[in-house]
Amino acid sequence: MKHPEINKITVTDRLLPKVLSAVLQNGALVRKLACGNSMYPFIRNQDVVIIEPFNRRPHLGDVVAFRHPKFRGLAIHRVVGRRKDSFLLKGDNAKRADGWLAFSQLTGCVVQTERNARLRRPQSRLESILIAGLSRIGLLIPIRKMIKSNMPGMVSPLQRIF
Description:
By secondary structure, the protein is of the alpha+beta class. It is built from four helices and eight strands; from the N terminus they run H-E-E-E-E-E-E-E-E-H-H-H. Strands 1, 2, 3, 4, 5, 6, 7 and 8 form an eight-stranded antiparallel β-sheet that branches.
């Protein structure tokens, strides 16, 4: 049986946010291969992220796609602060926040991740808020390292979150 041809296009990193925005504005979901470790361990390098158009303003703890203000390429980070129509974004594995961005600068919301061709359970609202709060005050990475070193080989609910 012949498979239908798949149209592929190559898009530069700087153009990707605009292309992604256009696709999402038409109501389509986007599957994108994650590159980098800024959201480790929630999103790892080579995981697939599924991004959907916003149907509401992002909440604290949501993971969003946006055009990074410094690098101009597409980035995926967590909302760690919110005031009116501005959002403070930060990668779970990053030491510094990306800064405050307007809602209009955000591209879409990550609703699902896949690792090794398997869908991963989405984080609960409480987990997302806890991770956002700890990340904002700079405790997420030290706590994750402490849990990992003090509980080798043991899977606890905290290890699943961090």
